[in-house]
Amino acid sequence: MLKSSRRKWIELNAAVCLGAAVKGKAAEGEKRRIRFGVSTYSYGHFKGDKYPLESVIEDAGRLGFDGVELLHVQMTSESTAYMNQLKRLAFRNGLDLIQLSIHQDFVSPDRQERRKQIDHTLHCIELAAQLGVPSIRLNSGRWKTIASFDDLMKVKGDEPPLKGYTNDDALAWCIESIQACIPAAEKAGVMVVLQKTQ
């Protein structure tokens, strides 16, 4: 059995505390590295054949990105095998799957239509959990009173409400719909992120 004096015990503890303090100061002085990710959306505008998500992940790894946001509508399958393939590919390329971007539209006076959009969102929360993605990015929706997307962009998304309704109605529908999704997101450990378009 080792015998140690009280003095040696105090010296040892003082050295440990001093070392921890010095290490803490060094950590405070270090700058946190900014991490960069790319969205598969960025690869979705090329004409001709669709650019597969697998190729986006490989490109992101080659270009030195840290993560990839997956666009749900670009997924070719929702099978477990396909999603596992995407996870393995990201892992092999040193990437995180950082977000699942989904599309839904809560701006509708039709309660059944809003329910359909809520159910779609709940389904995508499950997909995100299976993919190990920490968050989903959702859209609130729009009135669809301007048919052309190009025309909508010309007015910066500021389209008039449906006749008989107001933007306050749309906001209430969005809040109600998103709140209906929160318990499932909490249970799955998936954050719900709302995209601001203006």
Task: Lay out the secondary structure.
Layout: H1 6-29, E1 37-39, H2 53-63, E2 67-71, H3 80-92, E3 96-101, H4 111-131, E4 135-138, H5 149-154, H6 167-188, E5 191-194
Helix pairs in contact: 4-6
Primary descriptors:
alpha/beta; TIM Barrel; 5 strands; 49% helix
Provide a descriptive summary of the structure in words:
It contains six helices and five strands. It has a five-stranded parallel β-sheet with strand order 1-2-3-4-5, covered by helices on one side. The protein is α/β, with parallel strands linked by helices and 198 residues long. Strand 3, helix 4 (111-131) and strand 4 form a beta-alpha-beta unit. The protein is globular. Mean pLDDT is 87; it is low at 12-22. The chain has helices spanning 6-29, 53-63, 80-92, 111-131, 149-154, 167-188, and strands at residues 37-39, 67-71, 96-101, 135-138, 191-194. The longest helix has 24 residues, at 6-29. It starts with 5 loop residues before the first helix and ends with a strand. The chain has a single domain, classed as Divalent-metal-dependent TIM barrel enzymes (TIM Barrel, Alpha-Beta Barrel), CATH 3.20.20.150.
Short summary:
With 198 residues, the protein is an alpha/beta fold.
Poorly predicted runs of 5 or more residues = 12-22
Mind telling me the CATH superfamily name? Divalent-metal-dependent TIM barrel enzymes
How far apart are the first and last residues' alpha carbons, in Å?
71 Å
What is the string of helix and strand elements? Answer: HEHEHEHEHHE
Rg is 24 Å
CATH fold name = TIM Barrel
Question: CATH top level?
Answer: Alpha Beta
Which descriptor suits the 3D outline?
A: globular
Which strand order do you get reading across the main beta sheet?
Answer: 1-2-3-4-5
**How many β-strand stretches?**
5
Structural class: alpha/beta
Largest sheet: 5 strands, parallel
CATH architecture: Alpha-Beta Barrel
Q: Total number of helical segments?
A: 6
How many domains? Answer: 1
Q: Whole-number average pLDDT? A: 87
| Proportion of beta-strand residues | 5-15%
Helicity level: 40-55%
